[in-house]
Amino acid sequence: MAGVTQVQTTLNGEVINFLCEPRQSLLECLRDVLGMTGTKEGCNDGNCGACTVIMDGRIVDSCLVLGVEAEGKDITTIEGMATPEGLHPLQQSFLENAALQCGICTPGFLLASKGLLDQEPDADEGRIRHWLAGNLCRCTGYDKIVRAVLQVSKAK
Amino acid sequence: MEPFDYLSPSSLEEAVKTLASKGDQARIMAGGTDMLVQMRAGRRTAPLVVDIKEIPDLNVVSYDATNGLTLGAAVPCYKIYQDETLSAAYPGLMDAAFLIGGIQIQGRATIGGNICNAAPSGDSIPVVIALGGVCNIAGPNGTRQLPVEEMCTAPGRNALADGEILVSVSIPAPQAKSGASYLRFIPRNEMDIAVVGVGSSVQLDASGQNFVSARISLASVAPTPVFAKEAGDSLAGKPVNEETIQAASELAQAAAKPISDMRGTIRQRTHLVGVLTRRTLNIAIERARGG
């Protein structure tokens, strides 16, 4: 039945349980069920990347993942990037490079960039630009974002 | 989205049994990158969504130089292009897997799903047709095979009967002096829907100077992906030169039946079929000679 399902998932390192309907996207579950509103809704159809999260080491658009698919998965959202000790190096670099204006796309860009550098710590500019093609920013013109990621990358 | 039930079977048997009992009430979901968008927009509805990603048979990636590739219908694009053996064996397939959506989409979207979604613009379909891909289908009455070019029957419609499921796509092993390529035209650099796409594969003779055979397939120029058989066949036994490639590209143009819409006009699309057919043939030839 299209009833409520219990989902167990690891969210930002913590095993949690939540209830959702099969029709609810992971994005809806994060924001509306779990109250974690750091992940943003942009287009809600997989074009803009604002809702990017890391699931089992891969970046995905959380609007195109069902909440029930999170069962047994390991998910990182923007809320999991900073630590009590301080900002993630990418967050610090975005600040220093003024790589954001309105900020709606920023959590998605940060997670997408983290997804890249976790796998390829020495990604170069071309790789960064290609990797971030699935994230749209209507403010910055992208250069500052790319520069911010490049500053954290070991490619010099 | 309208409410639906969700099932994630762990075996092909269970999936087929469920699909057979639910008929058109069930809809198969692989990566979900097309289907969830369509369901959210109300263009598709399904009382039951059957998620196939936990089924081992649909996650198979099996390749050897004799039998070729069997690619499970639930294997996401990134797993294909991250595989160095596959990248070396099927560079034409990589052209497509690497440009479907962005990295987020490639983490979820599958070639099998692209074929079943049956969009005229499906980026992976032309090259899989060009490579001679075959769909391995399971259903309540057993299994059957269908060439990929017969899989798409209309925009958004495929040849699967109620209760059937695409298990995998088989692609023959690449032979010596063979090569393939896929190119699309889009007005942006990334993340767009093909105005025209062309997939070509060639088999050259030992000298690398003559075609043994060729297959050409087109996207976004008809209600379904087009297998331009005559265009490819025209190259069989011919020398590799500008004239034979030009003649094949004109036959490909003749096989295209494009419409004018927001992405392009009939004239532009017909022109692009010619250009992209020549370019993909030349890349395929270069790859064939290098291998």
Number of strands of chain B: 14
Structural class of chain A: alpha+beta
Global Rg of chain B: 19 Å
CATH topology type of the largest domain in chain B: Uridine Diphospho-n-acetylenolpyruvylglucosamine Reductase, domain 3
Q: What would you call the shape of chain B?
A: globular
Number of helices of chain B: 11
* Quaternary structure of the protein: heterodimer
Q: Output the CATH class name of the largest domain in chain B.
A: Alpha Beta
Number of strands of chain A: 5
Fraction of helical residues of chain B: 25-40%
Summarize the structure in words.
The complex is a heterodimer of chains A (156) and B (291). Chain A has five helices and five strands, in the order ββαβββαααα. In chain A, strands 2-1-5-3-4 form a five-stranded mixed β-sheet, sandwiched between helices. Chain A is an alpha+beta fold. The mean pLDDT of chain A is 96. Chain A starts with a strand and ends with a helix. Chain B has 291 residues and is of the alpha+beta class. Chain B folds into three domains: 5-51, Uridine Diphospho-n-acetylenolpyruvylglucosamine Reductase, domain 2 (2-Layer Sandwich), CATH 3.30.43; 56-171, Uridine Diphospho-n-acetylenolpyruvylglucosamine Reductase, domain 3 (2-Layer Sandwich); 178-290, 2-Layer Sandwich (Enolase-like, domain 1). Chain B is 33% helix and 25% strand. A five-stranded antiparallel β-sheet of chain B has the order 4-5-10-6-7. In chain B, helix 10 crosses helix 11. Chain B starts with a strand and ends with a helix. The A-B interface holds A 1-2, 5, 21-25, 44-47, 49, 52, 55, 58-61, 63-66, 68-69, 112, 115-116, 130-131, 133-135 and B 1-6, 8, 31-33, 36-37, 40-41, 47, 49, 51, 53, 78, 101-105, 107-108, 189-191.
Blueprint (SSEs and pairs):
The complex is a heterodimer of chains A (156) and B (291).
Chain A: E1 5-11, E2 14-20, H1 26-33, E3 52-55, E4 58-61, E5 74-76, H2 89-96, H3 106-119, H4 125-131, H5 143-152
Parallel strand pairs in A: 1-5
Antiparallel strand pairs in A: 1-2, 3-4, 3-5
Chain B: E1 5-7, H1 12-22, E2 26-29, H2 35-40, E3 48-51, E4 61-64, E5 68-72, H3 77-81, H4 84-89, H5 91-97, H6 103-106, H7 111-117, H8 125-130, E6 134-139, E7 142-147, E8 152-154, E9 157-158, E10 165-171, E11 178-185, E12 196-204, E13 211-219, E14 226-227, H9 229-233, H10 242-255, H11 266-290
Parallel strand pairs in B: 1-3, 2-3
Antiparallel strand pairs in B: 4-5, 5-10, 6-7, 6-10, 8-9, 11-12, 12-13, 13-14
